[in-house]
Amino acid sequence: MSSPQSRQESTAELHPAITAMVSLAAAIAGKHPDMGQCQRRRLRDMGITEGQIATVVEIASHIRDEAGQQLDAVFDNGAQQVADESPAIGVAGEASACCSSTASGTRCC
After folding, report:
1. Where are the chain's structural domains?
2. What's the pLDDT tens digit per position in 38-79?
3. CA 109 to CA 107: how far, in whole Å?
C-alpha cells in the first residue's frame, strides 16, 4: 500500500505550460491529425516563446522520425532474414543509441 506522500507525488499537478508542451510533443510524435495546433495556441497564449515551442516541435519530430527509421530497419532486417531463410528477427538499433540529438544538437532526453 502506498503512503499518502507517494500518492500526492504521483498525482501532483503540472504547470499548464508543461502539460501543453507534453501534449504538443505527444501529438507530433504520435502523428495525431491536428499535430498539436490547439496546444500551440495555448502555449502562445501563456507567453511561451516561439523558440521554446520550436524546440518542443523539433524534439518531438526527431523522436517520431527516429522511431520510423528504427521500424524500417526492423522491417528491412526481417525481410533480409526471410530472404536468407533465417527464422529469427533481430531488433534494430544499439543500446548506446538510447537518446540521440536533433539536427540542431538539442538532446531529446
Report:
1. 14-86
2. 899 999 999 999 999 999 999 999 999 998 888 888 887 776
3. 6
